[in-house]
From TrEMBL:
It comes from Geodermatophilus poikilotrophus. This is Secreted protein. Residues 68-92 are annotated as: Disordered.
């Protein structure tokens, strides 16, 4: 019974080692290397796209803050209401 157990253990370990070696050999072929490079480039492109989206969102948010702070979105005054700094309506 012990010999049967160790025989089964040896066969199982042998099968696992052969599968791992076969998978490693497949990754080392030109097609396997090309596939891993393509996958890496896809991941890089996704990361760059996500970064660009984050930058655009932050730019839009900052633009809203700047416009609110400078009053650029305020309505324009009527033609008779506009005054230059340092002048009063009676200085004309």
């Amino acid at each position: 019974m012990r010999r049967l157990f160790w025989l089964a253990m040896g066969v199982t370990i042998g099968v696992l080692v052969v599968r791992k070696v076969s998978a490693a050999a497949e990754r080392m072929t030109p097609a396997g290397i090309g596939g891993s490079i393509a996958e890496g480039l896809r991941d890089l492109a996704d990361a760059i796209g996500d970064f660009g989206a984050d930058v655009r969102a932050a730019m839009a948010e900052r633009e809203v803050e700047l416009r609110a702070g400078t009053g650029l979105d305020a309505p324009l005054p009527e033609p008779g209401q506009a005054q230059l700094p340092g002048r009063h309506a009676t200085d004309r």
